[in-house]
Amino acid sequence: MDRHSSDEDDDRQTLIHQNDTKHRPRQIPTSPRASTAPRSGFHIEELESQIRRRFKLTFNKRYLFAIFLPLLLIPIFLSTGIRSLFSSNISSLKFNKVSDQLKESQLQALYLLNQQLTSLLSLWNHTFVNSNDNVSAVQFDDIKASLLNQITLNKHIQQTLLSPHKTGNTLQNATVLDPAYAGYSFDRCRKVDLKFSERRTIKWKPKPNKFLFAICLSGQMSNHLICLEKHMFFAAVLNRALVIPSSKFDYQYNRVLDTEHINDCVGKKAVIPFEDFMEMKKNQAHIDRFICYFSSPQPCYVDEEHLKKLRSLGISMGKLESAWKNEDIKKPSQKTIKDLEEKFASDDDVIAIGDVFFAEMERDWVTQPGGPIAHKCKTLIEPSKLILLTAQRFIQTFLGSNFIALHFRRHGFLKFWYLLHFVIPILPERALLNKWVLAIAILVKAWVSLYGLMLLRAGNAKKPSCFYPIPQAADCITRMVERANTPIIYLSTDAAESETGLLQSMIVLNGKTIPLVKRPPRNSAEKWDALLYRHGIEDDPQVEAMLDKTICAMASVFIGAPGSTFTEDILRLRKDWGTASLCDEYLCQGEGPNFIAGEE
């Protein structure tokens, strides 16, 4: 306590003394006693005054110091301290961002690894589980392509895992396998080498005034084109010019075919339109011999109604005769060129042999790329120049060079597939009878074909159903899209919008919907079909069908409808034009529908 008081007194004296010496002249006392009392009273009053002045001065300095100190610290703080202050927070944010990216890339890599595992297991099962099957069932190209897909997928996984460590355009301390540089490039759906130059051919050298009158009545346009092609082979074997039927008796061929193209390719006047032929004969032509290729179900497969139509066109004829007594369209026998020459060779000017759509002769020769006749073109029977150009313009507008074409036939396949295989082949075609007679005939023949229907329902391997449920068809198409690596599909179909809409929604690969493109309705703003309108053939159903065929024939890959001659004619064009692919196949080839409805 005393020490504390003593310290305060000393401090106060020191302050007073310092202040006094600073502000007053120093006085020397005369004697110690005399100076002690008066200075004591004076110093008390003076001390209070000095304390007040000292406090005021001290308060002002502290106040100013408190105001100016932050102002002095702010620029120093901004220039030196802010980075160190927030450095830890920024580092934390950066770390969190990298961590999130790493987690995301790892999850994506796990998903891709799962896809790779599924594909490898599928390949394993397909190759080894069915090891007892024929080895040819597993194509070497398919194995190579599957393995290449896995190599590519593995590369993608590596890039995904390493993406957080990417600096600029390079990966730090990483080497990713690139199949393109490692010699793994492989075109799974490459074009087929059909060795066009090695084909076996016959020269078509028509003799003067010797004609073969073509008659084609089976089915629709595609059947008729196949029939015409076979007639051309007959004409070449027999050294005759071929007369194209009248549009009053058959289709209007000049709208879809260019007959002069055929003549230019052959280098001879080998094909003659009906009108030119009648002009040569002064509108009164006579078929000197009517030699029927088929004798059953009726001679020449021509009914009396069409014979009357021929007569009404100014064509007269003698009695129909059969080349073979038991040649039936249901079971046509294989014929050779020698057989044809023996039965149909004649010195008569004009002959006819009836419908030959079902004829089987020199199959390997007739069906080879480019056909059996020597010529300088890719094929003799092809779409007209107008249709060809229109198809090219459509592809340039909507599809591009890499697309799949799908012929998705639905009309009539659900209820009458068995009729297509069991009933129709033993019936006169719709062109031979009127629709009511044909309807009655179909009902009668359906009972006759009941045994065939029973085989079909029991799982007949020869004639399976080809009407696939939409989900199953979508799965087959998606597999082909993945296999062919194409971004878009051209759809040629007679299916309803309800079916095509569902099909579109289900064709999805790697989370991306693959668009289905159909020919749109006429739009004056679009110019791809201007040529058809300019020549007045835009609404002809046969022109539209041929346009569809042409687009499909130019596709990278084609998926056809089994049992359809429309598909078969597309395959012929692709083969002749050299556009056929190793991946071309029928829809869901090798598998039947996973559900088949019962019959009425």
From TrEMBL:
Transmembrane regions: 63-86
Keyword rRNA-binding: no
GO molecular function: peptide-O-fucosyltransferase activity
UniProt KW Glycoprotein keyword: yes
Signal peptide (residue range): none
Coiled coil: none
Location of the region described as Disordered in the Swiss-Prot/TrEMBL record: 1-39
Membrane topology reported for the UniProt record: Single-pass membrane protein
Compartment(s) where it occurs, according to its Swiss-Prot or TrEMBL record: Membrane
Protein name as annotated: O-fucosyltransferase family protein
Organism from which the protein derives: Gossypium australe
Taxonomic path: Eukaryota, Viridiplantae, Streptophyta, Embryophyta, Tracheophyta
